User: What shape does this take?
Amino acid sequence: MSRNTMHGRALWRGLVLLVLLALAGGLAYVWQDFSRFSQTPLNVAAQGQSIDVGRGSSLKDIVAQLRQQGVSTGQPLYWRLLAEQGRVAGKLHAGEYALTAGMTPRDLLANMAAGKVLQRNFTIVDGWTFRDLRQALVKADKLRQDGAELDEAAVMQKIGAEGEAPEGRFLPETYAYVKGDSDLDILRRAHAAMSKTLESLWPQRDKSLPLATPYDALILASIVEKETGRADERPRIAGVFVRRLQTRMLLQTDPTVIYGMGESYAGNIHKRDLTTDTPYNTYTRPGLPPTPIALPGKPALEAALHPAAGSELYFVARGDGSHVFSSTLDEHNRNVACYQLKRCP
Assistant: This one.
């Protein structure tokens, strides 16, 4: 073999080695860059960011959306490699996904593969009226408004409670929802929760209660709810109203009068309001009002079904959120003079 031939082969082997080294170096760089990409948090600029993946969206579509939102500058190839590596390619679910600080591309793909869509919370507050509830639903973020334009009867028909008066029928608590859910979905769940709660509490009630039905308990609980927000007072206030019902005394509770005034209530209640008869005026009509006057929470329901024993028939607000109780009219009048008229002896 000639010296020239040996030199040519050596040169060729050197070139091949250089090419292989270059390829190895390139692959090492790509792998290092890919690893950096997969572990580097996405560019989440503000709290509350999300990505909405439509039905039928491909990984390419998702990556394009992320790049358009400025969340990721990663190459589409890297996203494809990451999906293949995590065995989630072709398994990404449609829906809205939260983009949170510190989230990596791997985290986001894992959430999409598991269908961990973004959940929001809607809280029904103890003591809201049904009107308050509907106004809050309209303002809820990303909640579809299917019932906003319906009247109350139509809303109740839509949620499977046709013929029911809506007031008081929805349990105050926090309900999670996802994009695509509607106001009617929340109402349907809250209605079912109240029905289930009443169904479980009613059989364990104090048997001497002057309440004929679970609905009577719901009405009484709504009055207790509006009279006090203090946990320690709910059973005592319920006891006052139960004894008044048992002795056929008028309930004489201002919140029912206010409810009966409707939109004419301007923040203050006057003597003429107490004497103006409405179906909800418990100064002019005996017994419970025809419907609840608010949405009572579970503690108010429990208080109505298990009122405190005693002889108290009256209470008056102290002005600090608490009440002073009394058993006689004379004592009550003294308390009114002291705490409402500021004529304490």
Observations:
- The mean pLDDT is 90.
- The CA atoms of residues 158 and 253 lie 33 Å apart.
